[in-house]
Amino acid sequence: MAGTEPKPELLLDIRKLRIEATVFPPGEAPKNIVLVHDVSLSLKRGKVLGLIGESGAGKSTIGLSAMGYGRGGVRITGGEVVLNGRDIMKAGKRGIRRLRGKEVCYVAQSAAAAFNPAHKLMDQVIEASLEHGTGTRAQAEKRAIELFRKLSLPDPENIGERYPHQVSGGQLQRVMTAMALCSEPDLIVFDEPTTALDVTTQIDVLAAIKDAIRDTGVAALYITHDLAVVAQVSDEIMVLRHGRLVEWGGTQQIIKEPRQEYTNALVSVHEITHDEQSPGEAPFLSVKNVTAAYGTGGPKVLKDVSVDIYPGQTLAVVGESGSGKSTLARAITGLLPPEKGTVTFDGRPLANRLADRPKEDLRQLQMIYQMADVAMNPRQTVGTIIGRPLEFYFNMRGAERDRRIAELLDKIEMGKGFSDRYPAELSGGQKQRVCIARSLAAKPKLIICDEVTSALDPLVANGILKLLLGLQKEEQVAYLFITHDLATVKSIADSIAVMYRGEVVRYGPKSKVLAPPFDDYTDLLLSSVPEMEIGWLEKAIKGRRMESAGN
Amino acid sequence: MSSPILKLVAQRIALGVVLLLAVSVLIFAGTQILPGDVAQSILGQSATPESLANLRAELGLNDPAYVRYFNWLGGILTGDLGTALSSGQDIATSIGGRLWNTLFLAFWAAAVSIPLAIGLGLLAVRYRNGWVDKLISGLALASTSFPEFFIGYLLVYFFAVQWQIFPGISTVYDGMPFLDRMQAIALPAAVLTLVVLAHMMRMTRAAILNVMQSAYIETAELKGLSAIDVIRRHAFPNAIAPIINVVMLNLAFLIVGVVVVEVIFVYPGMGQYLVDHVAKRDVPVVQAVGLIFAAVYITLNIVADIGAIVANPRLRHPK
Amino acid sequence: MLNIRRIPIPALVGLVLTALFLFAAIFAPLIAPYGNGQIVGSVWEPASADYLLGTDNLGRDLLSRMIYGARITIFIAVMATALSFSLGAILGFTAAVLGGWFDTLMSRFVDLLMAIPTLIFGLVVLSVLPSTLVTLIMVMGLLDSTRVYRLSRAVAVDINVMDFVEAAKLRGEGTIWIIFREILPNALSPLISELGLRFIYAVLFLSALSFLGLGVQPPDADWGGMVKENKDGIVFGIPAALIPAAAIAALAISVNLVADWILNRTTSLKGGRG
User: Which of C172, C181, C268 sits opposite A26 (nearest CB)?
Assistant: First the structure.
């Protein structure tokens, strides 16, 4: 940097930032809402600041403001964004364009959508460098290839010749990081860069990003909802909620000595105590040697799977996307009749096809879905949704039915006033509770929970898990709990089945499954769950025995 | 160009051929199996039973339906479209010049409307929600609601009768000088253009807006590219396929519009020929012309699909 | 729920005009100043106090013809739309929910019908069928039901894969419940707006057929037929043919405005959060 004037030590200084948007609620006049309330932050050259919060906390909005960008009609209405010593809000359209892609670059959550399908990766990676004249084409390509190598992409010399759809999601996320680094910016905004990836892929990408940040000396705003992830890469962490600052401090302080109650709740979110119950004498539902495929002759999505479920207990099925865990649920419910094997219930075999099962069998198996939004008919009220199983299975009508609905609403910790509401008027957590009530209404022996907490914010998810555990004690209902999240499994399971590519690779009581010696896949899976511990990432990467699927 | 694309294109063409055969069956069945007797309609209600029987034998009406179908199809494939019942003329000969007239009219309507529609569609995207955009959606609403003859007679009333700029009846003949011919078709071509223009603009606008909302457009904006470069480098390559589709779909509308427009302007094309012979219940002519219209329509749809396949980078560069 | 002040002006205009046309159609004999076929003056008289819109090619009162024409036009279009809608929607929903061979067969057949431009196929069929009201309604309704089928099937397929429908199937609900209680309420808004569009299409299709001389036969006339009757006057500068043509355009635009409004209104209701 000889010859140029020294850049200020303080890279980014956001002062009293206020961001607003206009919303158009149906049937009402448009109104203004404030997304970010006078938030200030500062970032020194070469440092990483983690922005953390639930959905609606305004963290992406703040991140993009460092580039003078408002997504979908969002406006910056107050405060200053000082980058490299000047307020970019006063820089005008051209001025802002000159700093985007040169001083600040962006890495999006879904690289698959963020790359243009019509162009080769290399052309997109070096585009910003050429646009801002930071080097010749040859120089930029050379630098891109170095970055590909640094981010441990396979075949770094030639991967740039590929098109986005020819590269896997984990690799694409790294190419996007290379793209952001290529024009040698001072700051990169990472917007949930690993959230869309499978757990085992996530830590590889995370490690690659961390190395690249360290080696290039770039500063970063790292946005995520996962405190354990952000703790691995950040120097400082800022906790946001509803567009306001909650707490801001060094990483160690935030995760070990949080000063605010909300931060504390985020840190201790996975601490649910649940003592493992030993399996009873006889399971009431057994899956025996089930093999299943979509379409005749298609690839087998389930291979010779056997598991047992005991009354009033929880079997957790863990695996990554494509492991067949949801297919197992479909085979048990009869939505996908297995090609081979049987499902026995109370000692007798269940009919393979849904259509052949008597009403009583259907009543005993209920299901809760990942996306509560689409699991309820938007045109029915909560009362109708919960009341239908009562009518359908028990022929309950009128006052008796209403009384029972009120009882169920009480059980899910919602008042009977919700009976007349439509799903669109509920929050995410409330929707999932209504789905739980609907399945409880049938008084089933087993509820299949398919990723029921993965679309929810951590605190809300925590509430749902506690509710499920409480209900299990009261109603003696068993759960088949399907998830990709090992932290959840640790909190609620009695026994665990680990699935990998359609097979159960490890199965048994929780204490046995989670105790060494591990098989390679379980080891990989367990070591991939981020822990709230500085330095965990390096240890995890070092200790791995098996390559993750994304590579 | 790699083999998966060729395979898809070949599949699409084969499908088109199968569809065309099925359509020929449908058209034949539509005119044969439904009640109504060709012999009766030629000779009228007063015909004697003997003359009816003679005519039936002569026309081959006593053969089973499938034999008649294959005779008809075989004729068409060898260029023999049969003879018109009403005039006794060879259909293929009568059609020749008319087909050319219709294509000439449709070509000029397309040549004006396609560039205009794409240009205005881009303009509407550029000034989204501004007055240009509102005007365009207003026009689109009007154009989907106006019958062709309303636009047609409105133009005739003003341009031909009141101001006398263009002829209200489009007479063309062999050996007519090009400029005279262009003047003759000015009004019908204008009507056809107006009929498809607004719709094509609206669909182009929607196709480009759809692309503009993609995440990769945001990526490009965040690289600091100018608005022009974002559209030129990132939106346009992805908008080609949907635009080809829009254009082809609207050319198909044009085919239908041409029938009414030719009647309005008494233009000697296929549409007029078809309408005349439907009124005369001249089944062989109706079958032949109907099949030609369907063939053009199906071909346009195939071209639209192939355009979309070829412009799709995922298919052009397989894994 | 429905506050008149909240209705946007274009939709209000559409509603008023549509109501006006419907009123004219229903009470035609009461409001028409003269009879439908009654010759009251000389040919193509200009508008006057006696004949508000002038007279037509045979010296009949144009306004009265227009009012009776509204009746025929709207009646045939409504019947054809009702036919296409009930047929298309029922078959489309059934195909989506049942799937299997029924779906494949129906969908391929509809593809086939749609491979021929509707007007052309209409002309082919009308070349052998008698031009009666019933044939017209049947031909128009059947041909147009293909579009309704496509739309309702597509909408129903989208809804059918939603988790709440799966939940109903797991509960053990029958096909009837799933179609009428789970799918239909959610498919209503696109279908209602489509109803408007199909009606417009029926009006335009009928007008085109009548204009070509293959629709409603004289002495009765719908608006398209009236354009045909009076079109020869245009070259003499007599705009009588433009009046029924403009009426068709006005009806189509009003219904379009109403359909647009219904679509916007109901889709924003469905929105909710997220």
Answer: C268
Phi, psi of B242 (to 5 degrees): -60, -35
Provide the pairing of β-strand A187-191 with A10-23: unpaired
Q: How far apart are CA A169 and CA A196, in angstroms?
A: 9
In this prediction, residue B93 carries a pLDDT of 86
- Are A392 and C182 within 8 A, CB to CB? no
| Chain C residues touching residue A357 (CB < 8 angstroms) | 172
* pLDDT interval class at B41 (50, 70, 90): low
Backbone phi, psi, residue A15, to 5°: -120, 125
The residues, ordered by sequence, that sit 6+ positions from B64 with a Cβ below 8 Å of its Cβ are none
Q: What digits encode the pLDDT tens for the residues A433-485?
A: 999 999 999 999 999 999 998 888 888 888 999 999 999 999 899 999 999 88
* A136 contacts: CB under 8 Å, gap ≥ 6: none
Angle at A454 between CA A453 and CA A459, to 5 degrees: 60
Distance of alpha carbon B266 from alpha carbon B167, whole angstroms: 11
pTM of the entire predicted model:
0.81
Cβ of residue B227 closer than 8 Å to a chain A Cβ: no
Chain A residues lying within 8 Å of B220, measured CB to CB: 116, 127
How many whole angstroms separate alpha carbon B135 and alpha carbon B131? Answer: 6
Phi, psi of B247 (to 5 degrees): -60, -45
Q: Where are the beta strands (DSSP E) in A186-297?
A: 187-191, 219-224, 236-241, 244-250, 285-293
| Cα–Cα distance for residue pair A297/C7, rounded to 1 Å | 56
Place of tokens 């067949």: A324
> How far does C111 lie from chain A, in Å, by closest CA?
25
Residues 6+ apart with CB under 8 A from A187: A11, A12, A43, A66, A83, A103, A104, A105, A218, A219, A220, A221
Could you read off the pLDDT of C58-90 as tens digits, one per residue?
888 888 889 999 999 999 999 999 999 999 998
Q: Which chain A residues have a beta carbon less than 8 Å from that of B226?
A: 97
Three-state secondary structure readout of A15-38:
EEEEEEEEECCCCCCCEEEEEEEE
Tokens for B107?
């070509």
The three-class DSSP label of residue C39 is strand
Query: What is the sign, positive or negative, of the torsion defined by CA atoms of A276, A282, A287, A289?
Result: positive
> Is the bond preceding C219 in cis, omega lying within 30 degrees of 0?
yes
Do residue B218 and residue A67 have CB atoms under 8 angstroms apart? no
The residues, ordered by sequence, that sit 6+ positions from A313 with a Cβ below 8 Å of its Cβ are A277, A279, A280, A478, A479, A494, A495
Cα B122 to Cα B140: distance, rounded to the nearest angstrom: 15
In DSSP notation, B98-152 reads HHHHHHHHHHHHHHHHHHHHHHHHHHHHHTTTSHHHHHHHHHHHHHHHS-HHHHH
ipTM value, please give it.
0.84
- Taking the alpha carbons of B284, B289, B295, B297 in that order, is the dihedral positive or negative? negative
B104 to B112, B186, C159: CA distances (angstroms): 13, 12, 46
Question: Nearest-CA residue of chain B relative to C118?
Answer: B256
Ramachandran class of A503: left when φ > 0, alpha when ψ lies in -120 to 50, beta otherwise: beta
Q: Do B23 and C112 touch (CB under 8 A)?
A: yes
Q: Which residues contact A141 (CB under 8 A, 6 or more apart)?
A: A122, A126, A160
